[in-house]
Amino acid sequence: MTQGLIKSFFLHSLIIALFLYGAEIFKKNKRFEIYEIPLEVVDISDKTINKVDEPKKKKTKNKKEEMSFQPPKVKTKPTPPEFSVKEKKKKKVKKNNKEESKKEKKKQNRVSSILKSIEKIKSEKKINKEPEIEDDTKKEEKIDEEKEAKNINLGEKLTISEKDAIRRQFYRCWIVPAGAKNIKEYKVSIKLKLNKNGEVINSKLINKSNLDNPFFRTLAESAIRAVNHPDCKRLKVPVKKYETWKETILDFDPSVMIN
Amino acid sequence: MRNFLFFFLFIFPISSFAELRIDITKGNMDPIPLAILNFNTKAIEADEISSNINTVISNNLERSGLFSILPKKLFFNETIPFEKKPVFSDWKITTAQGLFHGKLNLKNEQLVIEFRLWDVLSQKQMVAQKLVTEKGNWRRIAHVISDIIYKRITGESGYFDSRIVYISESGAKRDRKKRLAIIDQDGANHKFLTDGSYLALTPRFSPAAQEVAYLSYNNRVPRIFLLDLNTGSQKVLGDFPGMTFSPRYSPDGKKLVMSLARNGNTDIFEMNLDTFKIKRLTFYDGIDTAPSYSPDGDFITFESDRSGSQKIYIMNLKTKNVKRISFGKGKYATPVWSPRGDLIAFTKLLNGEFYIGVMYVDGKGERVVYKSYLVESPTWSPNGRIIAFYNQSKLSGGRISNPKIKMIDLTGINLRQLITPSDASDPAWSGLLP
After folding, report:
1. Do B63 and B168 belong to one domain?
2. Most buried by CB count within 10 Å: which residue of A135, B211, B354, B356?
3. 8 A C-beta contact, residue B317 and residue B311
4. Do B140 and B213 share a domain, yes or no?
5. Same domain as A156, residue A205
6. Out of B7, B14, B94, whose CB is closest to A23?
């Protein structure tokens, strides 16, 4: 009995000591881990020189040539007459109307752009070519790729801003069933398998136990549709941190939005 | 040895290998884009019915505010062979997330409809059904199909196969004619139920939706009339001196709950429709009125001024315990329990303005869904998702608009007007038709 007590006392105090001291002793790396922060070091020259960006193919021979640049002359701002305050408000109203009409035009442009893309696909269907992606999305992808290339691989974890970029992507893709009964009590978790380009290869619902509940099923289906949405089929992830995000779990939680 | 194992079980799990996990807490509340294709038909006669059914389904789903029906000009094909799977890549380009198609046949005045609903993004079939009805029932079958689509995608039962009974108003304000009328929830099949020779007020549907109870002030005596919608026959339930609101049916249709004024005091009573015995439920010296049953029939909600101002209360019918649930500023009135059981809709008056609001049954989460110069008489759709009410707005020059019936989603979006032949007030929404 006493031996058992002694052993128990010894073990408990050892556990407490280890918790206090930390689990660092089991790590192979250094005792005190330094969390790396992405940092780009740029040398600043003594003089600032205005340079014009030239395309890579053309090599400039005379690097010493400088483009002369004259700033525009500052014009004095005319003072409006006293009665123009109301007119400014009218102008604001007109601006708002113009903005609304611009939004309507954007909607119409969206429908017409979809129609154009459909016509292109119809004509190309005979040749069995893949549909062309719009110029805007191509430009965005190029910009993203350039940014990723510039990123320095300083750690395996995703930064907060990288995670936020993924969250923002789903604003457009996830239609939340807001009015469904007790929807804020449910959470849906989906496990994604991604290829090196960030494209979703496989998606799987993890918490299936509540699928007989029609409202949980509605939420689960909305999340699965979001993951399969064309705008979210390829996640905006840093290519060089593939090992970190190749298997990702997304937790869809409508409670924050509904509250 | 045991101690050693115990030691390692506690220590080793300290360093865990966490996988990447991201919480998605924000999305959008856009309507779900749906593609509704024409039915495949064999006969020309079926084409017209097919087109009509298609139109009713599209209008129902669009009007709910939860769906956006894509224009047909975006489609590659306007029909898909019923036995074949759609080419989902084609439909993804149109931005459709749901795809509906089917086939329709006419056989000896019988309408046979088979349809499928697909989830375009998940590339899975959601629903496949076959319905048979008489040719003349095409409109009802369109509502039934709309309810099936609605339920499958939202998880909630639909409300399209239902009707609204209301008070139709016409004539000058000093000589206003008020008569009972009935209309489908989409504004079709309008019909007057009374001739207007006597005043009709506050209609209520029975749970089976085959009877309407309403209050009439014939010879200045308030009486409850029961109107059978199938036969058109009416009977008087009784004279109820001191009644200001028509009674409400219990969910099982066997009882009525009402408020009666006696000796300067208004209390709530319950009548058994088999025995016609009346039982008093509240005993407060003041005004307790406008009662409404919970969907399970175990509770009622009502308005009372027992706290000094009009507020909302709930009562457990078994224990007779009364609990106040509204605590905000202003006066609360006409509480109505949602068929879903989770919310109570009410009218509120604050600073000279009227509101339609909802709150949870414990009084939490109070919020306004609509406000206007005058709004009253909220009534729930059969699925507890839409609230209908009537309102009057203030116009320029101090004039007030005529009463109209409006509908709004419980989230406060998608306000719509029910188009009626004349002015309309006091709506009451039926359950889903049998």
Report:
1. no
2. B356
3. no
4. no
5. yes
6. B14
Residues 106-125 of B with CB under 8 A from A: 119, 121-123
Do A176 and A243 sit in the same domain of this protein?
A: yes
Q: For chain B, what is the mean pLDDT?
A: 90
- Enclosing domain of residue B320: 163-429
Cβ(B388)–Cβ(B406) below 8 Å: yes
Residues 6+ apart with CB under 8 A from A232: A169, A170, A172, A173, A200, A226
B39-66: pLDDT as tens digits:
988 888 888 899 999 999 999 999 999 9
B370 has a pLDDT exceeding 50: yes
Sign of CA dihedral B325, B329, B334, B338: negative
Residue B192: strand pairing partners: B181
pLDDT value of residue A83: 44
Tokens for B224, please give them. Answer: 């409850």
A102-127: buried (b, 16+ CB within 10 Å) or exposed (e) per residue? Answer: eeeeeeeeeeeebeebbeebeeeeee
Domain match, A200 and A106 both: no
The reply to whether B44 touches chain A by the CB within 8 Å rule is no
pLDDT the model gives residue B96: 94
How far does B29 lie from chain A, in Å, by closest CA?
A: 5
Note whether residue B14 is domain-resident.
no
Answer whether A26 sits within 8 Å of B93, measured CB to CB: no
- Co-location of B113 and B187 in the same domain: no
- Whether B24 has its CB under 8 Å from any CB of chain A: the answer is yes
The residue with tokens 């005792």 is: A31
Residue B214 lies in a domain: yes
Of A122, A229, A253, the CB nearest to B23: A253
pLDDT, one tens digit per residue, over B215-230 is 887 777 778 888 999 8
Task: Indicate which CATH number applies to the domain containing B40.
Answer: 3.40.50.10070
CA distance B414 to chain A (A): 12
Q: Which residue has the tokens 């395996």?
A: A156
Question: Residue A175: which of A138, A130, A229, A212 has the closest Cα?
Answer: A229
B144: nearest Cα among B53, B26, B240, B254:
B53
The whole-number average pLDDT for the span B187-205 is 90
What is the structure's pLDDT at A208? 85
Are both B365 and B416 inside the same structural domain? Answer: yes
Q: Is residue B335 part of a domain?
A: yes
Please give chain A's pLDDT, 259 residues, in tens: 788 999 999 999 999 998 877 655 555 544 445 555 555 555 555 555 655 544 455 454 444 444 444 555 555 555 554 444 444 445 555 555 565 566 556 556 666 777 777 776 666 655 554 444 445 555 555 555 555 544 545 457 889 999 999 999 999 999 999 888 888 899 999 999 999 999 999 999 998 888 899 999 999 999 999 999 999 999 989 888 999 999 999 999 999 887 6
Q: Please give the residue range of the domain that contains residue A119.
A: 88-132
CB–CB of B291/B268 below 8 Å?
Answer: yes
CB pairs under 8 A between A and B: 140
For residue B29, give the nearest of A121, A176, A250 by CB distance. A176
Is B22 in contact with A7 (Cβ distance < 8 A)? Answer: no
**Same domain, residue pair B109 and B210:** no
Interface contact B154-A218, CB threshold 8 A: yes
Q: Does B30 touch chain A (CB under 8 A)?
A: yes
- The verdict on B77 touching A (C-beta cutoff 8 Å) is no
Q: Which residues of A touch B10 (CB under 8 A)?
A: 15
